[in-house]
Queue: 2 jobs
Job 1
Amino acid sequence: MRPPLPQLVPDSCRGVGTARGAGRSRGRPAARGDGVTPGGERRAFHDFVAGHQRFLLTTHVNPDGDGLGSEVAVALWLRGLRKSAHALNDSLVPEAYLFLTRDVTAEAFEASLAERRFAECDAVIVLDTSNRQRVGRLAPLLDRFPLPIAVVDHHVSHVHGFGQVNVIEPDASSTGEIVYDLIRESGATLTPAMAEALYVALMTDTGSFRYSNTDSHAHRMAAELLSHGLDPQRIHAQVHSHASAGRLRFFGEVLSRLELMDGGRMAVMEAAPEQFQRHGLTGADTEGLVDMPRNIAGVDVVALFSEVEPGKVKVSLRSTGRISIDQVCAALGGGGHPHAAGVLLRGTRADARARILPELSRRIESPAIG
Amino acid sequence: MRPPLPQLVPDSCRGVGTARGAGRSRGRPAARGDGVTPGGERRAFHDFVAGHQRFLLTTHVNPDGDGLGSEVAVALWLRGLRKSAHALNDSLVPEAYLFLTRDVTAEAFEASLAERRFAECDAVIVLDTSNRQRVGRLAPLLDRFPLPIAVVDHHVSHVHGFGQVNVIEPDASSTGEIVYDLIRESGATLTPAMAEALYVALMTDTGSFRYSNTDSHAHRMAAELLSHGLDPQRIHAQVHSHASAGRLRFFGEVLSRLELMDGGRMAVMEAAPEQFQRHGLTGADTEGLVDMPRNIAGVDVVALFSEVEPGKVKVSLRSTGRISIDQVCAALGGGGHPHAAGVLLRGTRADARARILPELSRRIESPAIG
C-alpha cells in the first residue's frame, strides 16, 4: 500500500513554506561547498562513498525534478569515480524528465529487477526523502537486504533519517543543492550532464528561483551550472512543454467557474468526473491548477475539489501565507505543508465542500487556529 | 500619437529571442562589473554622472519592471551621491510596481509638470529604451530643451541611441543588469532598496531566470542582490498578485475553447467583446493569456484574437522558437520580435483570422519564410 499523500501534494511543495534562511546558520554546516571543511554528516557521506563500490540510488515515489536530477548527478559523479551506480525508483520517470535520463537510466520497480539490483549493490543512497516509506515498493527490500544506507535530503520532516549516514539539511533549497556541495567538496569536476541534472533539481524545487528557499547560495550555484553551457530556456521548455490541449481546455473550464467566498479571501474550484473523462485526464493532470488563483489580490486560500471518478474527491489546498492549511487535511487523513496540502475523500463534491470549507473559513477568520 | 506597438507587445518580451551569450564577448565591455576597467561608453556614462547635478530620469511608455526598477535604482544611486533625481514617465506606474516607488516617486506625464521637471534639471537619463519615440509624450520636450542625454538600454533595436552617451548592451539580460554593473563600477554601496529595484528589473526581464538571456552574470547578480535581505517569494507575490477573479474566469473561458490547427502546431484562441464587457476587462488584461498554450507539446505558434470592442481586434502572436512571427505583424502595421509580436486590426475576428492564420500556416510549413 502506498500512502495517499504523494499524489496529492507534489513533493516540490515541500520546503516552500520555510522562512528564508531560517536556521541556516544553525542547521547547515559552515561549509556550504565554499571551500571550508565539510560538517560531520557530510564527512561521513564522503567516507561512505569512498568505502563502497556498487551503489543503488533511489528517490521517493512520483519522483520530481529534484529527486531525479539529484539521482542522475550522483550516478554520474560515482561513475566518474569508477564506481558502479544504478538508479531504481518505485515509479516511472515522468515524461517531463526523460531527457535527463539519456546516460543514466532510472529504472522503475519490477519485483525481479529490484531483487537483482539489491543483490548486486553494496550500498544504497536515498535521495530527496528521509521518510523510509516514501521510497514505495523498495522499502521492504531495504528491510530484507542488510545494506548500508546514506540519506541525502532537504525536507524538514524526519530530520533524523533512517540511514547510517544522514545528510539532511532543511535550509537547502533542494536536495540538488546539497549534492552540488558534496560534489564540489569531493574535488570532482562537474560535467555538463551533471550541471544540467543539478540545474533541473534546483530550478524545479525553487519554482524557478521564486520561492523563499531561494538564497544567494542557490543563485551562485545556478551561475556556476550555467557556465557549463546550459541554456535555461531550452531546459525550462523540456521540463514544462508537456501539456495537452485537452488539459488546458479542462483548466479553462474549471477556472471559468471559479468562486470567490469569504469576502474574496477564499477561491474555490470544482472539477466533475465527466470533465476528467471528456478530456481523457487523470487526477495527476490537475497539477498546477490549484496554484493559479493564488495570484488573485486578496486571496488567502485556494481549494480545488477534483471528483476524479464518481464518489472520489481529491482535495487540493493552497495558502498564500497568512494561514496554515495542512492540519485541515491531516485531520481527515491527508497531509502536506502549511502552504500546500491535500486529502482524498470518499463521497460527492458537496460532501467534501461541507467538510473542508467551514474549516478554511474558521482559519481565515482566526489565522491563529493551528 | 503613441505608436501602437507598446500595448501589443510587452516590452519584457524584447530580448527574449536573443541567443544566449550571442555576441556577448564582442558586444559587452570586458568589465561586466567584475572589477575590470569599464569600457568606453560606460566610462563616458560615469563622466556624465559626475558632470551633472540635477537629473531627470525616464523610461518607455507602459513601463515594466525593468524600466521602473532601473529608474528607481539610478535615482537612489544619484541621491546617494547628493545629486537630485526625479523620475517622470509618459505613463502611470502599474499597480504591480507601486511598491517600488515608496522612496522614489515615478510621476506620470502632465504637461505643466513635465515643463517644470525639464526646466529644473541639467541632464536626462533614459532607461530601458534607445528609441526616442518610446518615451511617449516626453519626446517633444527632449527636442525643445537642449539637455544632455544619456541612454542606458539592452534592447537590440536602435543600437546607436540618441544620447550624448549611449550605454547600449544587447547581451545584458536587462537594463537593470547594466545599471547594477554601473553602480558597482562607481564604487557606490548598494542599499536594500536599490537591491530590491534591481532584483525586480532582473527577474521580470528574465522571466524569473527562465529565458535564454539568463546567464551566469545574471545569477551572480541575483546572488548579491539577495544577500541584502530580499525575500524572492514576497517580491514575486508583490509583482504578480494583482489578478482579479474576473480576469481568471475570462482566461478560463478563452482557454476552454482553445483550437488546435495545422496538425497541432498552431493554437488559436478568441475573445469576444461581450466577454471583455462582462468581466469588466480591457485589452491590457489579456497579458499572459497568449503565453499559456506555449506549453502544449508540439505547438509552434500561438495566436490570440482579442476583439476588445466590436470591430477592433488585438492580435497577439507567440512562437515557441522554430518559426519567426514578427514579420506577419509588421506587414500589417504592427511589430514585435521573432518570438512575440502583435498588431491591432480593424474588422471582425473572422477578418483578422483570415489575414493572419494563412500566413502562420505558411511559416509552419516552411520555417525559412522570413
Job 2
Amino acid sequence: MRSILVSSWGKPWRTGGEFSWKKVEYRLKETSRTSRSSLPVLVEHIKPERIVIVVLDTVAEKICSNYQKLCKMVEERYLDFIQKELEILEEVKVIVTPGVGSFELKFKGEMMDFYHYVFFELSRELIGLEKQCEVHLDITHGLNFAPVLLHEALENILGILAYTKNIKFSIYNAEPFIPETKEKSSLTIHRIEYRDVYPSLSPNRLGGKGEARLLAVREEHKKDTEFCKKVSKAAKVSNSKELNAFLSGIVNGLPLCLYTFCPNTQRLEKKLFLAVKEWRKNVEIRSGEVERKVSFTPDFTNCVKLWLAAKSFNIERKEAVVLEELEERMRKIFGYERSKEALISHELAKIKEEAEAKKKELNKWKLLRTLFSGERISPSFDRRNFLAHAGLEYNVTELRYS
Amino acid sequence: MRSILVSSWGKPWRTGGEFSWKKVEYRLKETSRTSRSSLPVLVEHIKPERIVIVVLDTVAEKICSNYQKLCKMVEERYLDFIQKELEILEEVKVIVTPGVGSFELKFKGEMMDFYHYVFFELSRELIGLEKQCEVHLDITHGLNFAPVLLHEALENILGILAYTKNIKFSIYNAEPFIPETKEKSSLTIHRIEYRDVYPSLSPNRLGGKGEARLLAVREEHKKDTEFCKKVSKAAKVSNSKELNAFLSGIVNGLPLCLYTFCPNTQRLEKKLFLAVKEWRKNVEIRSGEVERKVSFTPDFTNCVKLWLAAKSFNIERKEAVVLEELEERMRKIFGYERSKEALISHELAKIKEEAEAKKKELNKWKLLRTLFSGERISPSFDRRNFLAHAGLEYNVTELRYS
C-alpha cells in the first residue's frame, strides 16, 4: 500500500434521521464536488489505495444484545451513508471506536480507550505501507477530542514506521460551514500540514515499577476482587523485561539488543488481540446504557508500539548475528539517526578489524575483552560503558569466526 | 511559573450577541460549577499560575483600520466574556491567532500561519516554566483544526523544554453538550491524557537547499517582484548554517557544537519579532475582507525551536569550555537520553585522563590527535568519526591545561 486516507468523523445525521452535514461545494485545488462531506473530493484528488474512517460508538441510538453487534450496527450505518449519500464506490474501512458521554445512550468508561483502541487498529492498517508512502489525515468532520487523539496516535505510529519507511504526512481541513450565511457556500479544503516524518519512539517502559498489564479494571469495580483477579490474569505481560530491553535497543541504538530481545510478533499480536477480546467481553449493555468495566492501559499501546517496531524492522530473534547482516540492518534502521548509526558502525568496524587480525584464535566464541587487550578496557561490566559502545561492551559481547 | 492552563476556544456567542455556549454544570472530580465554559472548574481544580486562551481572529464581526486593532477588539471581547460571564478574577492572557475562511468577514491567508504564530506566542509563555512544572491543555471548546495544531505545537515546545525540565502534561475534555437532551445536563470533564514529557527535537534543518527565510509571499502576490524582494530581505536568516550546526549539536549530542554555535538568544528573538511585525504589516484590511499577503515559513518555527533550546539550556556561545562545566552541563541536558549522555561522558573521561597524564605539555593548545598517539586514530577528519565520538574528534578538538 502506497497511500492511505484517514478521516475523523462526527455524526452526519440528527437523531430524527435528517442530515446535519449540509450539501455544499467542497473544493481542493482544481477538484470540486457538491457533497455532504469532504471525502469525495479528497478521494478524487488523492486517489488513496485505502480509505479509513474513524467514528465513535456513541452515535448508536439503540442498544443491541452485545457490544460487537452495537459496533456492527454503527459501522453499517456509516457504510450506508458513504455508499448511498456520498456515492463512494471504493472500499472503505470504518473503525468504530469507544467514546464516553450521555447521548441517545449513556456511555461509561475511560476516555483514553479511544486512543489505545484506535492506536491498535490503525497500526494494523499502517503496517502495510510500502517503503515510499503517503499518509493523509482529514480532520474536517472531526469532533471534540477525537481528531486530537487520532492525530497523536498517527504521529506516534508513523514515527516508528519512519525508521524503515519514507513517509510523507499531510493533514487536510475544510473551511467550516457557517449555517448563518445565506449565499451558496463553497468550502476550500486546505492542506494545513505537509511534511516528512522523522523516526521517533518515546522511551516509555512497560510496567513502571510493577508488572505490566494490558488492561485495568475501572475504579467502580475494583471492589470485586474475583473480577480483578480474572482480568489481571488475562492481561498480564509475562515478558515485559525483555520487551523493555528491545525498546532500549531502539531508543539507545544497541544492535545486539535488538536481535537478542526482538519479540515474536505473532505471539505479541495474539496477546494484543486477546486483550481486545477481554476488554470487549467486559462491556455491559443495559437499558439505555453501555458500560466498559475494563479499560486499556498505557502498556497496551506500549506493546503495540513494540509490535510495530519488530514487524517493520524485519528482524527476528537471534542469539548470534553475522557481522555483515548487523552492519546492513543497522544502516537501514538507524540511517536517519546519524550519530547512532555512526557510533554503531564505528564499533562494528573496530570489531571487524580485530576479528581479521585474530582470525586463528576465533574458531570458538571469545569475549571481546580478551581480544582487545591492548586498550584501556574496563575489567568489569559497566552500564554507562555498555551504552557508550552501542551495547557492544567488551565484557558481555562474544565473537567467533566462521 | 510552576503551572499553566492553555485552552483552545471557538466562539462562545452568535452573531446577534446571544451566547451559543449554554450554561451547564461542569464537573471535575469533587469540583463542579454551572457555567458557559469548562474554564471556571478547571481554574478552581488546577489553580494554575497562568491562564492562556487561544482564539481565532475570524470571530471578528467588523473591520478595523488595521490588523492590530482588529486583534485587540477580539481580545477585549473575550476578556469581557471571561470576566463578566465566567466571573474569572485571575489574570488571563488571550492569544488571537490567524484563521482562514468566510465568516462575518472573509479571511484569506495560509492556514498554517495559525500553527507558526501560536508556536511563537506559546514558546514565549512556556519558557517561563520552572524545573518541576505542569502544563494543562483543555480542548473542550476547541473547534476544527485549532485544537489539533495547538496540541501539536505544545508537544513540540514541551519536547524541547523537557531536556532541562520535568514536565507533567495533561489534556482535558468535557463530555459534549447535546442540545437535544431535555434533562438538566451535567458534563464531566475527563483528563484524557496525563504523562511525563520526554525530550525530543526533530532534525528539521533550516533552509533546505536554499537560503532560510522566515516569511514567504503568498502565491497570489508573487508577480509583484518589488514586494517579494522587500519581504525576502526582511525575512532572511543570515546565520542558518550556524543554527543548523547548533541543531545538530542537540540532535546528535555534540557538546562542543552546542557551545561553538549557540545562537545569541536576544538577537534571535529580535529577528523573530521583526518577522512577526513584517507579517502583520502585510495584512490588508478591505471592506469585509482581511488578507494576509505574507505567510510564515516552517523555518520561522524552526528558529523558534532553536531559540527555545538555547534559552532553556542556559548556555552561551564559547570558543573554549572548561571540561568540568562541559561535563556538568551535558549531564543536565542529555540526562534523559542515556546513550548520548554515556557516550559524551565516556569521551570526556578519556580526554580528562589524557590531560592529567600530559599536564606538562598542555600549557598551550594541543590537538587531541597529537596526544592520543598510541591509539588507532584517523589521520584526517572524518564526518562519521566525528559523530561516533560525540563531536570530540581528534583532528578538530584542541585541549589546554589552565
